TrEMBL record:
It holds the Pfam family PCuAC. InterPro entries: LpqE-like, Lxx211020-like, PCuAC_sf. This is Transporter.
Length: 137
């Protein structure tokens, strides 16, 4: 039943079109004392047209950027990107060591177990509002 509110939230910005939805299991990494945090989730696009995830916002962060993790031998680095592709009838996985959302300039320390509100923005003008728990993994 947890998907229903997320799906309905997506419908707000998308009219009656098939809406992007977040699958269960998304989370925000808890890092005590850090001015940043990373968010991970899986998005599903049931529609017939590809979309792009363009950005996000949250009341707990000054800004949210889209990042990808690059590996050069044994060295990992992150790079900011303009958008993530969300294929038609496909999924976008944001996960540790890969694509993710960086919550930057946190306005306050995050608390283990709290829920962080995010609003995701897509290339078709739709938005998806969701809450992700803060977890230590």
């Amino acid at each position: 039943m947890r998907l229903l509110p997320v799906l309905l939230a997506g419908l707000v910005g998308a009219g009656l079109a098939l809406a992007v939805r977040a699958l269960p299991g998304g989370w925000v990494r808890y890092v005590p004392g850090s001015p940043t945090a990373a968010a991970y989730l899986v998005l599903e696009n049931p529609g017939p047209k590809p979309l792009k995830l363009l950005g996000a916002e949250s009341p707990v962060a000054g800004r949210i950027s889209l990042h990808t993790t690059l590996r050069d031998g044994s060295v990992l680095s992150m790079r900011s990107v303009e958008a993530f592709d969300l294929p038609a009838k496909g999924r976008l996985e944001l996960k540790p060591g890969g694509n993710h959302l960086m919550l930057e300039a946190l306005k306050r320390p995050l608390k283990l177990g709290e829920k962080v509100t995010l609003v995701l923005r897509f290339s078709d003008g739709s938005q998806l509002k969701l809450e992700l728990p803060v977890e230590m993994r």
